[in-house]
Design a protein that fits this description.
Elements (H helix, E strand, L loop, with lengths): L11 H5 L24 E4 L11 E3 L5 E5 L3 E5 L5 E3 L19 E6 L5 E6 L4 E6 L5 E6 L7 E3 L5 E5 L9 H11 L4 E6 L12 E7 L2 E7 L4 E6 L4 E8 L4 E10 L6 E3 L5 E5 L4 E5 L6 E5 L4 H16 L9 H4 L6 E6 L6 E5 L4 E4 L4
Antiparallel strand pairs: 1-24, 2-3, 3-4, 4-5, 6-7, 7-8, 8-9, 10-11, 11-12, 12-13, 14-15, 15-16, 16-17, 18-19, 19-20, 20-21, 22-23, 23-24
Protein backbone atom coordinates (compact mmCIF):
# COMPACT_ATOMS: atom_id res chain seq x y z
CA UNK A 1 0.00 0.00 0.00
CA UNK A 2 3.05 2.23 0.18
CA UNK A 3 3.47 4.28 -2.99
CA UNK A 4 6.75 6.06 -2.32
CA UNK A 5 10.34 5.05 -2.98
CA UNK A 6 13.09 4.30 -0.46
CA UNK A 7 13.64 6.67 2.49
CA UNK A 8 15.33 9.98 1.75
CA UNK A 9 18.68 10.60 3.41
CA UNK A 10 19.66 13.55 5.54
CA UNK A 11 20.85 16.21 3.14
CA UNK A 12 23.22 19.05 4.09
CA UNK A 13 20.47 21.68 4.07
CA UNK A 14 18.51 19.65 6.60
CA UNK A 15 21.50 19.02 8.82
CA UNK A 16 22.47 22.68 9.11
CA UNK A 17 18.87 23.88 9.01
CA UNK A 18 19.88 26.54 6.52
CA UNK A 19 16.47 27.94 5.56
CA UNK A 20 15.85 30.02 2.46
CA UNK A 21 12.68 31.44 4.01
CA UNK A 22 8.99 30.78 4.44
CA UNK A 23 7.49 29.73 1.09
CA UNK A 24 3.68 29.98 1.27
CA UNK A 25 1.34 28.49 -1.30
CA UNK A 26 0.22 30.72 -4.13
CA UNK A 27 -2.43 33.13 -2.85
CA UNK A 28 -1.88 32.06 0.76
CA UNK A 29 -0.94 34.18 3.74
CA UNK A 30 2.52 35.67 3.19
CA UNK A 31 3.37 36.47 6.81
CA UNK A 32 6.05 34.04 8.02
CA UNK A 33 5.53 32.15 11.28
CA UNK A 34 6.95 33.64 14.49
CA UNK A 35 10.40 32.72 15.73
CA UNK A 36 11.90 32.42 19.21
CA UNK A 37 15.36 32.44 20.75
CA UNK A 38 16.50 30.84 24.03
CA UNK A 39 16.21 34.24 25.70
CA UNK A 40 12.44 34.10 25.09
CA UNK A 41 11.79 30.69 26.66
CA UNK A 42 11.43 29.23 30.14
CA UNK A 43 11.09 25.76 31.65
CA UNK A 44 7.67 24.69 32.93
CA UNK A 45 7.22 23.49 35.62
CA UNK A 46 10.31 24.92 37.25
CA UNK A 47 10.76 21.93 39.57
CA UNK A 48 11.43 19.70 36.53
CA UNK A 49 9.32 16.89 37.96
CA UNK A 50 7.83 15.43 34.76
CA UNK A 51 8.61 11.92 33.54
CA UNK A 52 8.95 11.51 29.78
CA UNK A 53 6.43 14.23 28.79
CA UNK A 54 6.34 13.22 25.10
CA UNK A 55 3.17 15.09 24.12
CA UNK A 56 0.14 16.89 25.51
CA UNK A 57 -2.91 19.08 24.96
CA UNK A 58 -4.29 22.29 26.47
CA UNK A 59 -7.74 22.54 28.05
CA UNK A 60 -9.83 25.74 27.72
CA UNK A 61 -8.95 26.86 31.26
CA UNK A 62 -5.22 26.74 30.50
CA UNK A 63 -4.58 23.39 32.19
CA UNK A 64 -2.17 21.16 30.29
CA UNK A 65 -2.64 17.38 30.10
CA UNK A 66 0.80 15.86 29.67
CA UNK A 67 1.92 12.29 28.94
CA UNK A 68 3.63 10.80 32.00
CA UNK A 69 5.12 7.33 32.32
CA UNK A 70 4.24 6.92 35.99
CA UNK A 71 0.58 7.90 35.76
CA UNK A 72 -0.43 7.93 32.08
CA UNK A 73 -1.38 11.61 32.16
CA UNK A 74 -0.73 14.47 34.55
CA UNK A 75 -2.55 17.80 34.75
CA UNK A 76 -0.44 20.97 34.95
CA UNK A 77 -2.22 24.17 35.96
CA UNK A 78 -0.95 27.58 34.80
CA UNK A 79 0.79 28.12 38.15
CA UNK A 80 2.77 24.87 37.77
CA UNK A 81 0.71 22.72 40.15
CA UNK A 82 0.78 19.07 39.04
CA UNK A 83 -1.35 16.02 39.80
CA UNK A 84 -2.16 12.66 38.17
CA UNK A 85 -5.08 12.93 35.76
CA UNK A 86 -7.51 10.08 35.13
CA UNK A 87 -7.78 6.60 36.62
CA UNK A 88 -5.40 4.82 34.26
CA UNK A 89 -5.01 1.87 36.63
CA UNK A 90 -8.70 1.08 36.12
CA UNK A 91 -7.95 0.75 32.39
CA UNK A 92 -5.14 -1.77 33.08
CA UNK A 93 -2.33 0.77 32.77
CA UNK A 94 0.86 -0.60 34.37
CA UNK A 95 4.31 0.95 34.53
CA UNK A 96 6.63 -1.31 36.52
CA UNK A 97 10.04 -1.21 34.83
CA UNK A 98 12.00 -3.11 33.80
CA UNK A 99 9.53 -5.98 33.37
CA UNK A 100 6.49 -3.91 32.34
CA UNK A 101 7.08 -0.43 30.98
CA UNK A 102 4.37 1.86 29.63
CA UNK A 103 5.07 4.58 27.09
CA UNK A 104 2.25 7.13 26.76
CA UNK A 105 3.24 8.97 23.61
CA UNK A 106 0.80 10.79 21.34
CA UNK A 107 -1.86 12.86 23.15
CA UNK A 108 -4.65 14.40 21.05
CA UNK A 109 -7.93 16.17 21.67
CA UNK A 110 -10.97 14.69 19.94
CA UNK A 111 -13.23 16.88 17.75
CA UNK A 112 -15.78 17.11 20.61
CA UNK A 113 -13.29 19.07 22.71
CA UNK A 114 -14.06 16.83 25.70
CA UNK A 115 -12.27 13.54 25.14
CA UNK A 116 -8.53 12.98 24.77
CA UNK A 117 -6.77 10.03 23.13
CA UNK A 118 -3.47 8.68 24.42
CA UNK A 119 -1.44 6.17 22.39
CA UNK A 120 1.16 3.98 24.11
CA UNK A 121 4.27 3.38 22.00
CA UNK A 122 5.56 0.57 24.23
CA UNK A 123 2.40 -1.46 24.89
CA UNK A 124 0.12 -0.70 21.92
CA UNK A 125 -2.78 0.43 24.11
CA UNK A 126 -4.98 3.35 23.02
CA UNK A 127 -6.85 5.10 25.82
CA UNK A 128 -9.80 7.51 25.73
CA UNK A 129 -10.09 9.96 28.61
CA UNK A 130 -13.13 12.07 29.48
CA UNK A 131 -11.64 15.38 30.59
CA UNK A 132 -14.59 16.31 32.83
CA UNK A 133 -15.08 13.01 34.69
CA UNK A 134 -11.49 11.73 34.24
CA UNK A 135 -12.80 8.30 33.24
CA UNK A 136 -10.20 6.32 31.32
CA UNK A 137 -11.17 3.57 28.88
CA UNK A 138 -8.79 1.43 26.86
CA UNK A 139 -10.56 1.48 23.51
CA UNK A 140 -8.10 -0.66 21.57
CA UNK A 141 -5.13 -2.95 22.10
CA UNK A 142 -2.76 -3.03 19.12
CA UNK A 143 -0.36 -5.91 18.51
CA UNK A 144 2.60 -3.53 18.40
CA UNK A 145 3.36 -0.12 19.89
CA UNK A 146 0.95 2.68 18.93
CA UNK A 147 2.64 6.04 18.41
CA UNK A 148 -0.09 8.65 17.80
CA UNK A 149 -3.89 8.52 17.52
CA UNK A 150 -6.46 10.98 16.14
CA UNK A 151 -10.25 10.80 15.85
CA UNK A 152 -12.00 12.25 12.79
CA UNK A 153 -15.51 13.71 12.67
CA UNK A 154 -17.03 10.34 11.67
CA UNK A 155 -15.84 8.80 14.94
CA UNK A 156 -13.06 6.74 13.37
CA UNK A 157 -9.65 6.69 15.08
CA UNK A 158 -6.48 6.83 12.98
CA UNK A 159 -3.24 5.68 14.60
CA UNK A 160 0.35 5.01 13.62
CA UNK A 161 2.65 2.12 14.33
CA UNK A 162 6.32 3.11 14.35
CA UNK A 163 7.74 -0.41 14.23
CA UNK A 164 6.92 -3.97 15.29
CA UNK A 165 7.76 -3.67 18.98
CA UNK A 166 5.59 -5.83 21.20
CA UNK A 167 4.78 -5.05 24.85
CA UNK A 168 7.40 -6.47 27.19
CA UNK A 169 10.87 -5.77 28.58
CA UNK A 170 12.38 -5.47 25.08
CA UNK A 171 9.78 -3.11 23.62
CA UNK A 172 11.73 0.12 24.14
CA UNK A 173 14.99 -1.36 22.84
CA UNK A 174 13.17 -2.62 19.73
CA UNK A 175 11.64 0.81 19.23
CA UNK A 176 15.01 2.60 19.43
CA UNK A 177 16.55 -0.01 17.13
CA UNK A 178 14.03 1.13 14.51
CA UNK A 179 15.26 4.71 14.97
CA UNK A 180 18.75 3.46 14.16
CA UNK A 181 18.02 0.89 11.45
CA UNK A 182 14.94 2.51 9.81
CA UNK A 183 13.10 -0.68 8.81
CA UNK A 184 10.02 -0.26 6.63
CA UNK A 185 7.64 -1.74 9.20
CA UNK A 186 5.75 1.39 10.24
CA UNK A 187 2.05 1.64 9.39
CA UNK A 188 -1.14 3.68 9.56
CA UNK A 189 -4.38 2.08 10.79
CA UNK A 190 -8.01 3.16 10.96
CA UNK A 191 -10.27 2.00 13.76
CA UNK A 192 -13.85 2.41 12.45
CA UNK A 193 -16.60 3.64 14.73
CA UNK A 194 -18.22 0.63 16.45
CA UNK A 195 -21.49 -0.51 14.91
CA UNK A 196 -23.10 -0.50 18.37
CA UNK A 197 -22.17 -0.32 22.05
CA UNK A 198 -21.53 -4.06 22.29
CA UNK A 199 -19.35 -4.43 19.19
CA UNK A 200 -15.59 -3.93 19.21
CA UNK A 201 -14.06 -2.36 16.14
CA UNK A 202 -11.20 -4.04 14.30
CA UNK A 203 -8.39 -1.84 13.04
CA UNK A 204 -7.94 -1.64 9.27
CA UNK A 205 -4.46 -1.35 7.77
CA UNK A 206 -4.44 1.76 5.56
CA UNK A 207 -0.72 2.30 4.86
CA UNK A 208 2.22 -0.04 5.30
CA UNK A 209 5.97 0.21 4.70
CA UNK A 210 6.38 3.49 6.58
CA UNK A 211 9.78 4.42 7.96
CA UNK A 212 8.96 4.95 11.64
CA UNK A 213 5.39 6.19 11.35
CA UNK A 214 4.87 8.94 13.88
CA UNK A 215 2.65 12.03 14.22
CA UNK A 216 -0.76 12.22 12.52
CA UNK A 217 -2.82 15.30 11.67
CA UNK A 218 -6.21 15.42 9.94
CA UNK A 219 -7.30 18.51 7.98
CA UNK A 220 -10.93 17.86 7.08
CA UNK A 221 -11.28 21.31 5.49
CA UNK A 222 -8.65 20.30 2.95
CA UNK A 223 -9.75 16.69 2.91
CA UNK A 224 -6.28 15.42 3.73
CA UNK A 225 -4.47 13.35 6.35
CA UNK A 226 -0.79 13.89 7.14
CA UNK A 227 1.64 11.32 8.55
CA UNK A 228 5.19 11.96 9.73
CA UNK A 229 7.79 9.39 8.65
CA UNK A 230 10.50 10.26 11.12
CA UNK A 231 13.39 8.24 9.73
CA UNK A 232 12.49 9.01 6.11
CA UNK A 233 12.81 12.75 6.90
CA UNK A 234 9.43 13.65 5.45
CA UNK A 235 5.73 14.17 5.97
CA UNK A 236 3.38 12.43 3.55
CA UNK A 237 -0.21 13.36 2.81
CA UNK A 238 -3.22 11.58 1.34
CA UNK A 239 -6.59 12.74 0.16
CA UNK A 240 -9.05 11.45 2.75
CA UNK A 241 -12.71 10.54 2.51
CA UNK A 242 -13.80 10.79 6.15
CA UNK A 243 -17.12 9.06 5.42
CA UNK A 244 -15.57 5.72 4.49
CA UNK A 245 -11.87 6.12 5.35
CA UNK A 246 -10.66 5.89 1.75
CA UNK A 247 -7.18 7.25 1.04
CA UNK A 248 -6.02 8.38 -2.41
CA UNK A 249 -3.53 10.63 -4.19
CA UNK A 250 -0.56 10.21 -1.88
CA UNK A 251 2.20 12.81 -2.01
CA UNK A 252 5.29 13.98 -0.17
CA UNK A 253 4.11 17.11 1.64
CA UNK A 254 7.55 18.23 2.81
CA UNK A 255 11.07 16.87 3.16
CA UNK A 256 12.56 18.00 6.46
CA UNK A 257 14.64 16.47 9.26
CA UNK A 258 13.10 13.80 11.51
CA UNK A 259 9.47 14.96 11.91
CA UNK A 260 7.92 13.60 15.10
CA UNK A 261 4.58 14.84 16.46
CA UNK A 262 2.75 17.30 14.23
CA UNK A 263 -0.06 19.79 14.91
CA UNK A 264 -2.34 21.85 12.65
CA UNK A 265 -2.96 25.47 13.55
CA UNK A 266 -6.02 27.56 12.70
CA UNK A 267 -4.41 28.68 9.44
CA UNK A 268 -3.86 25.10 8.25
CA UNK A 269 -0.09 25.20 8.81
CA UNK A 270 1.70 22.17 10.26
CA UNK A 271 3.88 22.71 13.30
CA UNK A 272 6.49 19.97 13.50
CA UNK A 273 8.75 18.72 16.30
CA UNK A 274 12.14 17.52 15.05
CA UNK A 275 14.02 15.65 17.82
CA UNK A 276 17.31 14.93 16.04
CA UNK A 277 17.51 18.46 14.60
CA UNK A 278 16.44 19.86 18.00
CA UNK A 279 14.05 22.25 16.27
CA UNK A 280 10.46 23.45 15.91
CA UNK A 281 9.54 23.71 12.22
CA UNK A 282 6.49 25.11 10.45
CA UNK A 283 5.23 23.74 7.11
CA UNK A 284 2.85 25.10 4.48
CA UNK A 285 1.18 21.80 3.42
CA UNK A 286 0.23 23.17 0.00
CA UNK A 287 3.60 24.46 -1.16
CA UNK A 288 5.82 22.23 1.00
CA UNK A 289 7.71 25.34 2.12
CA UNK A 290 8.97 25.24 5.68
CA UNK A 291 10.89 27.39 8.10
CA UNK A 292 12.41 27.18 11.56
CA UNK A 293 10.47 28.72 14.44
CA UNK A 294 12.84 27.63 17.22
CA UNK A 295 16.29 26.08 17.06
CA UNK A 296 18.79 26.62 19.89
CA UNK A 297 21.76 25.46 17.87
CA UNK A 298 25.14 24.86 19.51
CA UNK A 299 28.58 24.00 18.05
CA UNK A 300 28.32 20.55 19.63
CA UNK A 301 24.96 19.93 17.97
CA UNK A 302 26.27 21.05 14.57
CA UNK A 303 29.11 18.56 14.85
CA UNK A 304 26.68 15.81 15.84
CA UNK A 305 24.52 16.52 12.78
CA UNK A 306 27.51 16.21 10.48
CA UNK A 307 28.41 12.89 12.10
CA UNK A 308 24.75 11.76 12.01
CA UNK A 309 24.69 12.38 8.28
CA UNK A 310 27.99 10.59 7.75
CA UNK A 311 26.82 7.52 9.65
CA UNK A 312 23.48 7.57 7.85
CA UNK A 313 25.23 7.50 4.49
CA UNK A 314 27.72 4.82 5.57
CA UNK A 315 25.14 2.62 7.29
CA UNK A 316 26.83 2.84 10.71
CA UNK A 317 24.87 2.83 13.96
CA UNK A 318 23.77 6.29 15.15
CA UNK A 319 22.30 5.51 18.57
CA UNK A 320 25.50 6.42 20.42
CA UNK A 321 25.11 9.99 19.14
CA UNK A 322 21.85 10.47 21.05
CA UNK A 323 22.88 12.19 24.25
CA UNK A 324 22.95 15.57 26.05
CA UNK A 325 24.94 17.30 23.31
CA UNK A 326 22.10 16.53 20.90
CA UNK A 327 19.39 18.29 22.91
CA UNK A 328 21.21 20.90 25.01
CA UNK A 329 20.18 23.52 26.09
CA UNK A 330 16.74 21.86 26.05
CA UNK A 331 15.91 19.35 28.82
CA UNK A 332 15.72 16.36 26.45
CA UNK A 333 14.95 15.25 22.91
CA UNK A 334 12.13 17.47 21.61
CA UNK A 335 9.26 15.24 20.38
CA UNK A 336 6.06 17.28 20.40
CA UNK A 337 4.33 20.58 21.00
CA UNK A 338 1.16 22.07 22.44
CA UNK A 339 -0.53 24.91 20.59
CA UNK A 340 -2.68 26.90 23.00
CA UNK A 341 -5.21 29.65 22.27
CA UNK A 342 -4.49 32.13 19.47
CA UNK A 343 -1.68 34.37 20.66
CA UNK A 344 -0.96 32.18 23.69
CA UNK A 345 2.26 30.37 24.58
CA UNK A 346 3.51 27.26 22.81
CA UNK A 347 4.87 24.39 24.87
CA UNK A 348 7.52 21.97 23.62
CA UNK A 349 7.32 18.42 24.94
CA UNK A 350 9.95 15.69 24.89
CA UNK A 351 12.06 13.05 26.59
CA UNK A 352 13.16 15.21 29.49
CA UNK A 353 11.80 16.26 32.87
CA UNK A 354 10.01 19.50 32.02
CA UNK A 355 8.40 21.46 29.19
CA UNK A 356 9.88 24.36 27.27
CA UNK A 357 7.54 27.35 27.22
CA UNK A 358 7.77 29.70 24.26
CA UNK A 359 6.47 33.10 25.29
CA UNK A 360 3.46 34.56 23.44
CA UNK A 361 4.40 36.81 20.52
CA UNK A 362 3.13 40.37 20.61
Amino acid sequence: MRIFSKPTRFIPACVSLTITGWIPASGAETTPPPTWTMEQVSFFPEDRSLVRPEDGVALPDGTLLIADQRHGLVALTPDGTKRPFGDFAAAAYVHEPPTRSAGPNGVAMEPDGIHVLVADILTGAIYRIHTETEQVVRIYQHEFGANSARRDSSGAVWFTQSTRNRAGPDSEARMFAAVDEAPLDGALFRLPPPADSTTESVAELKLSGLTFGNGVAIDEARGEIYVAETMANRIVGYQLSVADGTLSEGRVVAELPTPDNIELDASGRLWVASPIANALLVVDPTSGGWSTAFHPQTPEHRQLMVEWQRRTESGESRLALIGPDMWAPLPGLFTGLILTTEGGPIYLTGLGDTLVKLAPKE
